[in-house]
C-alpha cells in the first residue's frame, strides 16, 4: 500500500505542478483560448495565485516525505487539493462546465485517497 500511495501521490504531484506552472507562465488570454474558460471569471493575479497554490500542493505531496522533514505536510497537501477542487467544482458548476466537474471529482477522490492513507494506516 505504501508503494501505491507513493505512485498516486507522485502522479497527482506531477499533474498539479504542470497545471500550476501553466497558469503561472501563460497569459490569461492564451489559457482561455486553450480551453481554460474559467480564467475569464478571475483577474490575472488570481489565476497566477491559483497556479502558485497548485505548485505548492504538488511540492507538498512529495518533498516533505522524500526529505523526511515534516512528513505530516503530505496529507495536509492532499487535503488542500481536495479543498481547491471543491472550489473548482463551484466555479465550473456556475459556468455549466460538466466535463471539468468530472475531472475535479476524480482529482478529489485521488487526493482523498492519499490523505486517508497518509493520515491513517500508512502514515510515515
From TrEMBL:
Main localization category: membrane
UniProt membrane topology term: Multi-pass membrane protein
Key words, A-Z: Membrane, Transmembrane, Transmembrane helix
Superkingdom classification of source: Bacteria
Places the protein is found: Membrane
Key word Iron present: no
Entry-linked InterPro entries: DoxX
One Pfam match: DoxX_2
TM region positions: 6-25, 46-66, 72-92, 101-119
Record-level GO cellular component terms: membrane
Descriptive protein name: DoxX family protein
